[in-house]
Each structure stands twice: as C-alpha cells, then as structure tokens.
Amino acid sequence: MSKSSREVLSFQGGIHPSGDGKQLSSGNPIQIAPLLDRYRVMISQNVGKPPKPVVKPGDTVKKYQLLAEADGFVSANLHSPTSGKIIGIVDVPGPMGTLVPAIEIEADGLDEAAETWPPIAWRDADPADLLKRVGDAGLVGMGGAAFPTRVKFSPPPEKKIDTLILNGAECEPYLTADHRLMLEHPEKVLEGAAISGRMLGVSNIYIGVEVNKEDAIQALGRRASEYGVKIATLKVQYPQGSEKQLIMAITGRAVPAGGLPMDAGCVVQNVGTAAAVTDAVVSGIPLVERVTTVTGEVVKNPGNWMLKIGTPVIKAIEFAGGVTAEPGKLILGGPMMGFAQKSFDVPVSKNTSGILLLPVSEALTYGSVGCIRCGRCLEACPMNLMPCLLGNAVEGEKFDIAAQNHVMDCIECGSCAYVCPAHRPLVQHMRRAKAEIRKRKK
Amino acid sequence: METILFAILLMAVIGLVLGLVIGWFAKIFQIESDSRVELVTELLPGANCGGCGKAGCSDFAKSVVSGENPPSKCPVSSKEQVTAIALALGIDAGESFQQRAVVCCGGDREQTKRLLNYNGVVDCVSASLVAGGPKGCSYGCLGMGTCARKCPFGAIEIINNLAVVHRELCVGCGTCVAACPRGVIKLVPADAEVHVYCNSPAKGPAKRQVCNVPCLGCRKCARAFPNKFKVDGFKAQVNYEAKPLPTADDVQAVGCPTGCLLTADEHLKIEQNEPEWSPEK
Amino acid sequence: MSENENKSEVRLPSGSELVLSVSPHLTGSDSVRRIMYKVLLSLVPAAVAGVFFFGFYALVVMLATMLFCIGAEALWCKLAGKPVMGTIADGSAALTGLLLAMNLPPGVPLWVCLVGAFIAIWLGKQVFGGLGHNPFNPALVARVGLLIALPAIMTTWPAPRSLGEPEAAMIERNVTGATTDATSGATPLGEVSTTPKILDRTPQAEMNFSSVDSDRYYWRYFLGEKGGCIGETSVLALLIGGIMLICFNLINWRVPICYIGTVAVFTGLVNFFFPGVTPTPLFHLLTGGLMLGAFFMATDMVTSPITGTGCIIFAIGCGIITSVIRIWGNYPEGVSFSILFMNALVPLIDRWCVRQPFGYVAKREVAK
Amino acid sequence: MKYLELTVGAVLVYNFVLSRFLGICPFLGVSKRLSTAMGMSGAVIFVMTIASFITSLVYRYLLRFDIDGRTVDLGFLQVLLFILIIAGLVQLIEIMLQKLSPMLYQALGIYLPLITTNCAVLGAATINANNNYTVLEATIFGFCSGIGFALALLLFSSLRERLELAAPPQAFQGTPIALVTAGILAMAFVGFSGLC
Questions:
Q1: Could you name the CATH architecture of B37-89?
Q2: What residues of B are in the D interface, CB distance below 8 Å?
Q3: Residue C96 above 90 pLDDT?
Q4: ipTM above 0.90, yes or no
Q5: How far apart are the first and last CA of chain A?
Q6: Most C-beta atoms within 10 A of its C-beta, which of A157, C11, C136, D83?
C-alpha cells in the first residue's frame, strides 16, 4: 500500500482548473497582522453546539484567556485573541449570511498573554492527556469544516484506525495558506502529525501534498523521517483535498457511501490543524490565530497573513493594501467551495482559510441555459454521480428522482458546475435537493 | 335454421365456459374490499394536498373509515362536504376548524432592501441556501414563488416580489407552510382578519436598516388591546385565540407606526395597487 | 456597515452590491455557444467537399437551410416570448440547419429546405422546450420527415463532379446497365438496394455488385465522387471533421469507432456467410451517410446517452440497425432511421447505465 | 424462416402501435410511468397471446365445420365471439391483478378493462383470421404483436418520463408533446419497412 515517494497519486474524476491564481500569493511569506483596536469573535466557530460564553461585559481579558466554554461533546472552547475589555455580545454578519452572536473585545493594545499551559513531552505522554489538551485549546478542523479535533481524534473503539493522513493538498485555486505554512514551519506540521499519530495510536502517517508545491515537499522531506511521517505526492487535480478522494489517492481505500474516513480506517487532518496541535501541546497556547490567504486579482498586495480570529474581513483586506479595482464578489474560503458574502464585516474564524476578492468581470458565472447532456459533469464528478441528471430532477422539483440517484452522496465540490458549458448552478441544485430530502425525512 | 341453432349453441357453450372459469378465478383471487373507502374518497376534494397529514385523499379516506381521523381533519373540505362524509358513514363529523395561510411579511420590492446581484436559481429554497438569500432581511419573504408553485389551489400570488395569499382561494392545507424555507407563512383561523406583517425577531434598529415596514416591537398595539396582541421579543403578534379577534377598527385605533399591522384585505390592496406604499404617506 | 471607508484609492463597494452566488465561483472557459461553433467549424471540410462535388447550388442549399432554421427559431422565440437573440446566438439553430442541409440531396428545391427547417426547429426541438430537451436529433427528424413525405424529391440525386476519368460515369449506370439522364443518377447504395430479402433468398436473386462495388471505385468514394446527400459525399472531408471534433474534445471517439466498426463487422459477416446478398464491408463504410452519421449525428450530445458505456451501446445499436436496413430494408440507407430509433432508446439506455457512485462497492463489501 | 419473418414483422415492421396505429388508447393512457407501462405491457402480451391462441382455435375449428357433408359457416359470429373471449380473458387478468398487485391495478385504472375493447387485441385476432394463420402461427403472431406493443410502450413511456423534466411551452405540455413524440417514433419505425 505504501508508495514510493515520487509516485504521483490521484483519484477518479475531478478537474484541472486553469490559471489557479496561486502565483499571486504563494511567494509571499506569512506576515503577522498588526493589532486592531476591536475584535468580534463569533461564538459559534465549530460544527456542533456553540460554546457557552464565560465572560461578562466589562470584564478584562488577556490573550489566550477562555471566552466561551465547550458545551457538550461536539463543541469547542473559544479563547481571546488579544488582551482588552469585553464590550458585550453583538450580532455580526456570519459567513453563512445570517446574523450571528459574537463577543466584541476592545483591545488594550498590549496584547498581553495569559499564562500558558505547561508543555507536554508528547513522545511519552498518555494519549488521553494529549486529547484533553487539544480539547482545551479549542482546536477545530482548519481546512473548512471546523469539526472539533478532539472529537475527530476520539473514534469509537470499534473503528480500527490504522492511518493518519495530513491534508496538505490545498487543491483550491488561489489559496496558499497551507503551502506557506508547510514551507515556513515544516517541523511544526510534522511534529503536529506525530503528536496526532500518538493520540490515535497510529504509526502510519502520511502527508499528502500536490506536486505544484515542490518547495514545501522539499522542506517537509528534509525532516519527515525524524517524525516518522511519509510524504505522498499528489497530482494537481481538484478536489484532491477532499477527504474521500485523498484517502483513495493515498491508500487506495474507498470510504463507503454515507460513511466517514474512519470507516476506511483513516483519519484526515488539515496541516494547519496539525500545526495548531503542536502549538497546543508543545507551546501550550490555544487556537486564537491562523494563517489566511488574502488574495484575488483586484487585491493590491495579495499574501498570507497570520490573522487573529475576530478580525473583520475588511481589515484583512486593508492589511493587503486594499483593492486596485472594484471587486464583484467576496468569498470566504477558496473559489471552488467557499461562500460568497454580502458584507465586509464578517469576522475571520478558526476555519477561514482564505479571503478572496473576484473582479466584477468574473463575478457573474451562472447562466440560464438548459442542460445539453454533454456528460462532462459525469467525467468530472469525483463521487461518480450524474450531476446533470440530478440538476434536471431538481429543476423539475422531482426530489425522489434525485434521492434515487444518490444526491446525498454529493460532496458539493463544484467540479460539475466548473466544467458545465451551460454554466448551470448545479451545486445550488444539489444543496436544494439535500435540503428538501432532509426535510421530507423528518 | 341449423346455422342459427349452432350459433346459439356455440355462444352459449363459450359463454358458459368463460363464466365458469371467471367464477372459479374470482373465488381463488378473492379480496375483501371496503366500498366505504371508495365512497369517502369520492366525497373528498381529491387535491391530494396532504394537509391532513396523510399521503393523499384515498389514504385519508382509509383513516376516516377506520375511525383514526374524523372527517373534519380534512382542511380543504367545506363544512357541508364534511357533513356529507359524516352522514355517509354515520359517524360524528368532528370539530371543524378552518384555517387560512398568511404570509407574515410586508417587505415587497419597494419596502425591503434587496441585494441586487443574486446569480442563481430563482427559487426560495435554493436562494436561501446562498448566504441566507438575497434579501436584506434574513427572515422575510424571498418572493421567488416556491410557495406559489407548490400551492395546489393557486391561492398564492407573487406581487412586487412578495407572496400574497388570496384568502378566497386558500383552504388552509399548509402545503405552503412546509414549502417556505423562511417559515414566513403561518396558518391562522379562517376568520382572523388582522395580522402582523412582519416575521423578523431581530432588534428594531437592525430591522429598520433593511426594511421600511418592520414591526419595531413598540408595544403600541399590545397597550391598546392587551388581550388581542402580544409582543414577543421585538415582534408583535396577533393573539389568534382571542375572542373576539381584532378587527379593522382596532387597526385604526392602534395606529401602527410602521404600518405592519394590517387587515388581510388592506394588505392585498396595497400590494396590488400601491407598490410604493409606505406608512408615512 | 460604516466601516466600509477604505484607505486605498479604490473604494470597496457596499456589501449589498456584491454578487451572491453558490460555489464554485470559478468556471471553465467552455460554453454551449463555443461548442456549437466548434461543431460548425468541424463541418466546414465536408461542406466544402459538398460544394466542390455538387456545385454552387449546394452552397445555396446549405446557406438557405441555415437561414431558414435561424428564422424558424427566431419566429418561435418571438411567439413564445423567449429572448430571441440569446437563443439564436448559441448557434444551435445554425448547426441544425447545416446538418439538415448536409442530409439533403444537392438538387433539392429551396421550399423543401424551408419545410425541413420548420420541422427541425419547431417539431424537432422547440415543442420539447428548446435546446437540451429534445429527445430526437432535430436535423434527423426533419430529414426523415421529408424523406417519408417527399420520397421523389428526396431521392433525386444529381451526379457529382467527375474526378476526370471516363469510368466515373459509372455512377450514372444502374444495375441493369442502362444509362440514365446525366443530371440524375443513384447513390451507390441505391444501386444495390434492390437486393432480395434474405428470408426467401433464391439463387437467381444473387446479385453481382461489380457495377458499383469494386476496388476501382473505393478511392473515388473515399474522396467523394459519389451520388448522395450534400454532406455525406466525401469520406475524407468527414474524417477530417471527425478528427477535429475529437481534438476539440467534443465527442467520445469510441462512438464513431463502435458505430462504423459494428457496420463493418455486421456487413462483413453477412457478406461472408451469404455471399451475394450485400457488397463488401468497405463499400458500406465508404458509401451513404455512415461517416456523417457516425461522426456528427450519433454523437449529438443532447440526443445520445450521457454515460460513456451508454454511448457505446447506442453506437452499436445504430450500427446493427443501419446494416439491417441497408441489407434487407426497403430504404437503401438506414443511418437516419437507425439513429432516430436509437434516440428513442436513449432514456432506457441511460437507465441501464446508471453509474455506481463512489464508495458503494466498499459499502457492500463491508456489509458482507 | 417463416416464423422469423412473422416475428420481425409483428415486432418491428408492422408494429401494432407505430405502424398499424392500433391500441393508441392505452399507448397514450398508461405511458406516463415506465413501471405502469411495464405492467400494461405484460397484461397485453398475456391477453394477446392467449386471445390469439383461443380465437384461432375457435376460428379454425368452431366457426366453420362440416356436418354430414354440409358446411356450416358461422363466420358472421367472428367479431362477436372474439370480443366475448377477449372480454373474458381481460376479466381474468383484472381479478388476478387486483389480488396480486393492487398498486399496478390502481395505476392501470380504467385502461385495464379497456383492453377488452382494445383494437390491438381484437386486431390481432382478426389479422390471424384474415391471414388464415395456423394455431401455432397465430399464437406466435399474437405473442410477437404483444412484444411489439410492449416495445413501443416501453420506448414511449421512457421518453415521456424524460420529457417530464423538459420544459415545453404550456400549450404543448402533457398529451400534445406525447403525440408529437409518438409521431416521431412512428417515423423512426418507417425505416424498418421492407424487412419482411
């Protein structure tokens, strides 16, 4: 099952977006963002139950101090990104377009850190201690889904996990945050991988990187053996970084439909999360900042920033020098799976991997032409579905046909909509079908 | 003569044989059917709207015959129709409770801020999945007509980007309530005339920013008629259990500052005739 | 919202002016319009060949049919209240027109083109809801409709330009050897179509196809010197067009190969086991509308199956039916009929070829 | 060879629906769903085969026979008898279906008893009689005609299911578009002419 390091691995289907925009920011080292006078930290930054706030208006907090406490198993702690005064809980526009509660902090400008946790000598530590630390630090999946890491690393005992895969594919066009992280802090990523392996009791650890990040592969490769991590080079193909496709490419195993990676004996973790694991375990600091790519053709100085959570998007754009032309679309995340925003006041959260501004000329992508049954979406679909048929079924509001044709297995990667010559909003159709089918099941 | 004899004989024999075979088959494949189910099905409206909670009219008929549901559970049938079913089965008609749908939003094209550049499917469910929908208010009617398309009775019309219920056509089956991704549509007693045309639980100033006709939660109505209106957070609601229900005169007396408290007829008239209506004018 | 002031020269728009759409926010460069124009481009070699062999009037027919189709589409859109320009600009009407013209005899009167255009666009496409919804290839619907309704006009074949050798006149001879009017002849397939039915074949019925089926003629058939429809004359030009289509990544190369291969194998088998019933496979490949059908008609995206496997089944079905009609049917040529028939089978083929989504095999294994 | 000719003729060349234009009523009526169409096809194949068999028996041995050297010709009873027999058969099917597959019974609705007066079944019986087919030929013909009907119905219903997702102009929705489709389908079948 293990492949030689230079074999380029991949999966069935997928697309090769042309002009992936990574060159805009891939050469720019990670910069530390200047301190702002105000942060709005969204309370719900994880999948599952939002944490319970433990601070009151008027409280003074220090950097790394707990703001909200995990409420239940699938939940995550939230810490203050800086020192200052709590103003209160305010409504901010969330990344999904609705107003969401956030804790507003007025920074005192000192950025004074609270006492950090003691480092853990992880090589001999009890996995349970490591897990607890990861939970305390409020780690969530930083690739996009924001699933609490502690939960991910506590698989039910009947699932035998034998492989840990670090996702460094970063297949989304434009995004370079993971790339820079791997290039600049390879030891952090590798150490995080090893710690994660220790937590899971797994020694078979891969880190999958697309071949277009040659320098990162080199950087990781120099130290990989120290940490017992194998590097899998992956073909540049979208969605290489999707869990199921990544597992397929590296191990050749297929995650059963409707299943999770652990059903194939794997756990997949983003490289950013791995670095955060190292921070939590070795440095004893919680997750309060992350590397985010601020990019786009209209951004003056595209680059990668270490942003504190709660930074408004507009400030991040200002760090990058503002815009050179009027943007037509603001996207949080990558262009393939990110979410279009209707406000520049959205705060950065633990899973904001990118802030992308598209020019007006590229903002309108969808048309109203019907399907011409060219079948390209069938070739592109990494899940082997029939997107055109599903789209037609949804347009005719025949959701039972969509359900029969496995719309629930769609991973919404957008490959079908990318290749569609009729420019149909297929992902929107899929989401609607899923929403309607879920509603019906209730 | 002979020919006729043979002809009669032949027909008779074949008829007899076929008759015997059919009779024999009928015995083997006998099934018990309840003719009452068919009778009730015929008396039902046949719209298969699912308002009763069953899969369709024949399914409902079965449940009526078996005594699981009273005939009045059908929201679509008029009182006379329900009585007819009850008479046919010789059972009690059950308490009739007629409902009507009302779209609790007055935010039409002119009143509520819309986001100009929505690029996608014209359907409320689809649109609500993109950044919460292309409307400034994330609780109001999206006006893309999913409810109007689904209504089996054609009772909902989209006017000025706002769904409006024609009360004379609505039977209260609740199909639209299930279809609406925003939960703007509510089922109310059929004789309720006055409604609060706002669905947003957000704070007053936030609503003001995006809409000209929100309920600001000023409590004016609740102060004037404490038993007829109640204020829940930042949104007033009609107390539909009040007897008597509020009337057009009450609306006059309250003098709602934003004009989101209206009678259904008035609301329909505003949307049909005065697209640029606002309370100030 | 008040924080939208910006230090840079270019102001950020307010959030409500941003475009909202679902992911993905990138899109490939190909569009329906481009696809249609690429197919049109691929048809140019065959069109040029048609004009070369049948003269200027062939060009008139092609242009007129395209124009009529565009007109029919515009008229429909106007009547139906659809955007006229947007629909015409996608090029599908022009493509249908050109394909239809290529399926018409070179000497066809222009009113036939007009009727054909309306059949194609109105009955073949727009009544079903327009591009993408039509289950049958519009050009073929029109061609078959015309063939059934106007058999005389649709089977009058002007002789092609001779490539110089006197023997080329063979096209104008029918099987009995009598020469016909120099301006009207028969297609090679037409010549052999008076063959007997296999079902009650008698020795007398065995035919000698040498008047049309001989090594001497293959080259000419290949280059295009044969009677027939405007577009099907030159196998060479059609092959060039087909290769263009494959290079443009517009068709699955397996479809034409399977179609042509099936015809070759089927006619080859019949030729081998029942000698004298039908000419050699090579003859079948080089004559009639097989190349046009295999490269341009059977590969039509809208009316062929969506899955790759489905397309291959479709192509093989077309091949078998084409051969059967050619060998035993009343009509000398079966390409149009066979594709039309297989078009009707497409929904069923799509049903049979449902793909197994990712992870389903594994699920079954786990269940074991 | 004769039987092959009979088969090809009944299924393709002289397809009952698309070439002889018989049995249009169920063809349009039950073709909205592929599953119901399959059920209907099965019922028609069954009725046609049995009806052809029995009617040809009756036609050959009961309608014309010699008695004491004289010929008794009951040919005038042909249509009457055929309908009687078909009606009886359909009744049998109906009773069976109601028990065995109530869903299909519901879906077929009125079209099931209508097979009784379905011109396709009566047509098959009459064609058998007119062509003076032997009992075996008649049975094969009946069966193959049923297959031809089933083929047409399956093609048509799958097309209609696809058309359900199409967006024809309002005036053409439903039956009009189905008729256009049926017409084009019939054109495709013209291509088979001359095969036998």
A1: Orthogonal Bundle (1.10)
A2: 2-3, 6-7, 10-11, 14-15, 18-19, 21-22, 25-26, 29-31
A3: yes
A4: no
A5: 42
A6: C136
